[in-house]
Amino acid sequence: MLFSSLLLRRRSVLPGFDLAMGLTLTYLCLIVLIPLSAAFLRTTELTWAEFVEVVTSPRVVASYKLTFGASFLAAIINGVFGLLVAWVLVRYDFFGRRIVDALVDLPFALPTAVAGITLTGLYAGNGWIGQYLEPLGIKVAFTPVGVFVAMTFIGLPFVVRTVQPILEDMASELEEAAATLGASRLQTFYKVILPILTPALLTGFALAFARALGEYGSIIFIAGNMPMISEITPLLIITKLEQYDYAGATAIAVVMLVMSFVLLLAINALQAWARKRQGK
Fold first, then answer.
1. What's the sign of the alpha-carbon dihedral 119, 133, 224, 261?
2. Dihedral of alpha carbons 167, 170, 173, 175, sign
3. Whole-prediction pTM value?
4. Span 169-195, pLDDT tens digits
């Protein structure tokens, strides 16, 4: 054991734990902790009563409900269909598979403003898709549904790219063994495949959820940005900054930061629980 430890230490490409950890903590402080701390410190310009008044105003609460609700729902939808897309890309060989695989990454490379304009053009009343939906009473553009559509669009690649490597490493013999033992396809999925994919699915869900929470560019075009109806929290923060209400903007940002951290912490706890069940 001692020899293996010394050999691993001798072969390490990094200059040592102390130096590497010091550089890591310094980088995290400069990039993450100091900017976030500045946001918390800026809110000290407000008294507690003023802080509560800002973050609990009806307009702000409505933006919280839309932002977190639509982000959560979009992440769930992406979890389901992201698994399906990853499964098709890994388990089936078909003409144009590489093109489909490349299209999955399109929301990563596409500028958010371009995505917003494109989605608005598609789902507006005179758009290619909207012109057929609105006669049915389904209005997407300039409604909360448009916010959900934009969040779903930008979050799909996170789930697919998280689940895809796990599926590639999963041996198909597991499914064959389950079938040999008499398991149905549904039993094979729920008792063999899903437990293995659960940690990756939760990771993809968390990434898609976090990405949707912070999305701004693609949403403002299709949302309509109507207060109390289709106004997201990031837009409300930008609005307060344009009004030079920096303390109010940081107060809303701090609440959003704390709520996001709590939710992501809960998701990480679920990931740990899922890995523990697998004995990892």
1. negative
2. negative
3. 0.84
4. 887 777 778 777 777 778 888 888 888
HSE (CB half, 13 Å, CA atoms) of 28? 6
The 8-class DSSP code of residue 14 comes to S
Structure token pair of residue 247: 């303390």
Q: 171 vs 133, 176, 198, CA distance in Å?
A: 43, 9, 16
* Domain ranges (residues) in the chain: 1-45, 47-277
Per-residue confidence band for 280, with pLDDT thresholds at 50, 70 and 90: low
Spatial separation of the C-alpha atoms in residues 153 and 161, rounded to whole Å: 14
Which residues have C-beta within 8 Å of that of residue 230, sequence separation ≥ 6? 66, 142, 143, 144, 146, 147, 223, 224
Give the CATH H-level superfamily of domain 47-277.
MetI-like (1.10.3720.10)
Residue type, 242: E
Q: What is the DSSP string of 72-137?
A: HHHHHHHHHHHHHHHHHHHH---TTHHHHHHHHTHHHHS-HHHHHHHHHHHHSTTSTTHHHHGGGT
Residue 150: CB partners within 8 Å, gap ≥ 6?
115, 116, 119, 215, 218, 219, 222, 223
Tokens linked to 243: 């009004």
- What are 225's two structure tokens? 């940005």
Q: Which of 239, 211, 247, 263 is nearest to 63 (CA)?
A: 239
Residue 221 CB contacts under 8 Å (≥ 6 apart), including other chains: 113, 116, 117, 119, 120
